[in-house]
Amino acid sequence: MRNGNFIKEKTEYLKEKFKTQEGLWDFFIGTAIWSFIIIEYNKVIFAKILEFVSFLPEGNVLKYIAYLIFGVFGSLLGIAISVILNKIFKLLFNGGLK
After folding, report:
1. For residues 64 and 58, is the Cβ–Cβ distance under 8 A?
2. What is the pTM of this model?
3. Which of 25, 16, 33, 31 has the alpha carbon at shortest distance from 91?
4. Phi, psi of 61 (to 5 degrees)
């Protein structure tokens, strides 16, 4: 999105997601998986991240960096979950991976 309207782009993405079987599959299955990971393992993941950045001084900067790393990790994990679910969907419902 180059010089676009961020909110408009996000809204269009969400509308399109619910128009496809793969999008619905990703939403209903992927959201449940991602929510499970966040609820069950967020303290463990965050503790590991804090351990990783323990060389930084205590305070708000440390927390900010830890939250930022958690967000990047979460985004990448979310993408991985979506890709894997898409491949499973194609395997189950389209007769194989393409």
Report:
1. no
2. 0.74
3. 25
4. -65, -45
Q: pLDDT by residue for the chain (98 residues), tens digit each?
A: 567 788 888 888 888 888 988 888 888 999 999 899 989 999 999 999 999 998 989 889 999 999 999 999 999 999 999 999 989 888 888 766 55
User: Nearest to residue 39, comparing CAs of 9, 64, 74, 65?
Assistant: 74
* Length of the chain as a residue count: 98
Q: Write down the H helix ranges in 1-98.
A: 6-17, 21-25, 31-52, 60-93
Report the distance separating Cα 47 and Cα 66, nearest Å. Answer: 9
